[in-house]
Amino acid sequence: MPAALLSVRGLTTVFDVPPRPIVAVDGVSFDLRRGETLGLVGESGSGKSVTALSIMRLLDPPGHITGGHVVFNDQDLLDLPEAEMRKVRGAGIGLVFQEPMAALNPVMRVGHQIAESLLVHGRASRRDARKRAIELLEAVRIPDPAARVDDYPHQFSGGMRQRVMIAVALACRPPLVIADEPTTALDVTVQAQILDLLRAMKQQFDLSLLLITHDLGVIAETADRVAVMYAGRIVEEGPVRAIFHNPQHPYTRGLLASIPGGTAGARLQAIPGMVPNLAALPPGCAFAPRCPERLTICDAAPPGQTAITDEQRVRCYLHQAAAGNDGSTNAELRARTGELR
Ligand code: ADP
Ligand code: MG
Fold first, then answer.
1. C-alpha angle 272/275/276, rounded to 5°?
2. Considering Cα of 300, then 302, then 304, then 307, what sign does the dihedral take?
3. Burial 271-293 (b: 16+ CB within 10 A, else e)
4. Backbone phi and psi for residue 287, each to the nearest 5 degrees, phi listed first
5. Is 6 helix (H, G, I), strand (E, B) or coil?
6. What is the distance in A from the centroid of ligand 2 to the CA of 236?
7. Distance from residue 327's CA to the centre of ligand 1 (Å)
8. CB–CB of 127/149 below 8 Å?
9. Helices 158-170/110-120 angle, 10° precision
């Protein structure tokens, strides 16, 4: 098994807001292996972006990391001095956001923005930087890059701007790119082009990719493995094929049922209920109030993790029962899970 390029362990991020702190990321752990694309998926508000910002240490107060480890290239990023962390941003980990206008400087020519990144990280001389910027624009398939290099962000269409942002993210050849909803703001045709570009860039630049999205459809086409997030916790994790063909968490099954065109002829079913208020989570499984397969024990405490296979793990009492992890209530759980399958 290839070594992990990024290992997140027990990452916990809290927003200190009245009336009580919100735990937006609650003990999140996952590995991103070299050369793979890991999809991080969940409904809006599940803590995906806060996870990404925590990894990059880009959170603003009142948000702060209260625990865990983010090991990248054998260094815990949470222990690095800020000056070292600045080198990791861009040169070690590139970031692509949903909204390129927020990430790009509106009053700076795009070529200049790419060049800046190269210069800051000492990756090119001022003379070479412009040439490299044109090459990067060409790599992300911007037509006529030698002419477009002097344009401003607003002179590009939404899809082309997203390409520019990808060029900026790739400028210093980071081994890892975190793409947070990179196609969400785009129309469907352009979405497909950008996903295609990310796949091509992954090959060409030998990248590992953390692809964050609320859309399992995007994951199906792009990721190798998937981590499913709900209310700040990873509830299921596994290879894409397992997640799509053998989902074990009722939340994962709900997400799958809500993919347009997921199953031919099937009616689109949104998961009933709403993403919980993180300030008032239930004491048990956070999904229990919406769960069609809820057991009595689900309200008691959050479920632990159960391995389904070497590669697939789930946090759900249906499986703790099956794995016999929960002594006192097994009889009840077995009865209920038997009845449900
Ligand atoms: P996602 O990217 O999965 O849609 P986010 O990671 O952006 O979700 O946010 C997760 C939760 O973190 C939000 O639902 C909210 O409760 C909390 N949160 C995020 N940003 C802030 C903030 N600036 N102040 C207070 N709470 C926040
Ligand atoms: Mg987000």
1. 115
2. positive
3. beeebbebeebeebbbbbbbbeb
4. -85, -15
5. strand
6. 19
7. 36
8. no
9. 20
Tell me the CATH class for 4-223.
Answer: alpha beta
Closest ligand 1 atom, CA of 212?
Answer: 2
Helix (H, G, I), strand (E, B) or coil at 236: strand
Alpha carbon nearest to ligand 1 atom 6, residue? 47
Domain boundaries, the chain: 4-223
Convert the pLDDT of each residue in 38-88 to its tens digit.
999 999 999 999 999 999 999 999 999 999 999 999 999 999 999 999 999
Indicate if the alpha-carbon torsion angle 88, 90, 96, 97 is positive or negative. positive
| Atom number, ligand 1, closest to the C-alpha of residue 47 | 6
Q: Which residues pair with 211 in a beta bridge?
A: 39, 179
| Helical axes 110-120 vs 126-139, angle rounded to 10° | 120
Is the pLDDT at 328 greater than 50? The verdict is no
How far is Cα 339 from Cα 100, in angstroms, rounded to an integer? 49
> What does the pLDDT look like over 181-204, one tens digit per residue?
999 888 888 999 999 999 999 999
Matching residue, tokens 């002179």: 155
Task: Please state whether the peptide bond connecting residue 250 to the residue before it is cis, i.e. omega within 30 degrees of 0.
Answer: no
Task: Read off the pLDDT of residues 193-238 as tens digits, 9 standing for 90 and up.
Answer: 999 999 999 999 999 999 999 999 899 989 999 999 999 999 999 9
The tokens of 327 are what?
């002594």
Ligand 1 atom at minimum distance from 44 CA: 4
Residues 6+ apart with CB under 8 A from 334: 321, 322
- Within the chain, strands assigned E span 4-15, 22-33, 37-41, 63-72, 75-76, 93-96, 176-180, 208-213, 225-230, 233-239, 306-307, 313-314
- Centre a 10 Å sphere on the Cβ of residue 194 and count the other Cβ atoms it contains: 22
Which residues face 30 on adjacent strands?
Answer: 8
